[in-house]
Fold this sequence. Notes:
Chain A is mainly alpha-helical. Helix content of chain A is 69%, strand content 0%.
Amino acid sequence: MVELFASLWVEYLWPLLWLVIKIVVIVVPLLVAVAYLTYAERKIIAAMQMRKGPNVVGPFGLLQPFADGLKLFMKETVLPSRASVAVYFLAPMLTFLLALAAWAVVPFGDGLVLADINVGILYLFAISSLGVYGIIMSGWASNSRYAFLGGLRSAAQMVSYEVSIGFVLISVLLTVGSLNLSDVVMAQKTVWFFIPHLPMFVVFFISGLAETNRSPFDLPEAEAELVAGYNVEYSSMPFALFFLGEYANMILMSAMTVILFLGGWLPPMDIALFTWIPGPIWFAAKIAFVLFFFLWVRATFPRYRYDQLMRLGWKVFLPLSLAWLVITASVLQFTGLVPK
Amino acid sequence: MIQALVFYMFACLAVLGGVMVISARNPVHSVLFLIFVFFNAAGLFLLLGAEFLAMVLVVVYVGAVAVLFLFVVMMLDINFVELRQGFLHYLPVGAAIGLVLFIELAAVFAGWHEAPEAKQMIAAATPDMAEIANTQALGRIIYTKYLYLFQASGMVLLVAMVGAIMLTLRKRPSTKRQNISLQLARKKEDTLEVVKMPVGGGIG
């Protein structure tokens, strides 16, 4: 009996427990990062608009995100009449879970990854393309015209920009010759990809803004002119889940930008002072850098109109990224730089 | 053992989801169950070691095709009560068609036998899986041996796309479109005129 239990422990239970520990180690800092991203957003935009931002709750307002969370938690969960209950509650959970599930393949350092799968890029792409379901389901299940129209609008937006993101990913993985994310980072040892792929770096960043429904493409936030978006009927915790999912997606988009174009966990130069700092810290610093741009854009640009948004996605980014893909393939082929 | 368990889990859930697709009362729920079936099929692909196919199934079918499908179904104005009314009325016809199809399938299965050369052809086309990842293996086959078929399938999709656009595109002269280059090319002189007005005269 004891031997059976021992073998069961060694073969199944301990690996399972170890896996759970690793997941917790990834998810908890992520949630803290999400909480402080909301704080950073308010502080940075306040500074850009010469205000103070949150400064009352805790020192420098540092406890503000938790106060906000508690406030949302204490509110009443409102269920619209004739809503499709199961789908209504499934939608925010799906949004939040997908935002977390994507982190399974993100490499934080050399070998520091939960699941080092062969098709890491495709996995990230698949997860981000599933994000549209949270939006479309919530819009439909609310049984409200405004939520439904908002859901359709955001879903169309996400589907459109996904196409050009796909082409950008293909351009990058042609240069790498592998779909594994660790290989993508290691291929940038000599030069980070934002230098040879500069136009695609810009396209990817802007598409990332559109994909995460961020300003200047934040039509779901346009409560003044469009009665907001898919989440108008949500309150309390379901709304908080949407909110958390949106910010976790922002961090994920930044992480993808860092992995694909800014050399992942690699230091900027391979010299002693830089290599002393461990990889995960470089990775986090680069993510914070990209996130700052997300917030900066929000404080700077006015919102796009819906038809302008569609025009940019289909008539500008799609031909541009498709042409860049052909150029990349041709250059690699004719200069003999094709990775083995 | 765990693999077998996981296989049965995915297989049972896929079958269950398939049953729910046809038995759900609300068509939107049907589509959501269909997506659930796609997921389980992707899981089965993963178990077979075909990770590329699994991911492509999720990206293409779940991420794109099913979204558009969901769009269409959500926009349809369906009266569920009316939809259910003729059920008993049409049952005999439906059952007859189902029976004919079933007999045909059974006949096909009964007459099924594997050609002796078939095995060799598979072996010739597939590179050693231990050496290269299956994404690369698929690429090598599709872009060399089946290049023309691959291109032909692309052409079929292109024709379908052009056809769909031709059928639905209509020029509406009343809509106003934004021409950004025209807007940017506008100069101050084209639109603004400074007029000296006599005091107390007004525009005459």
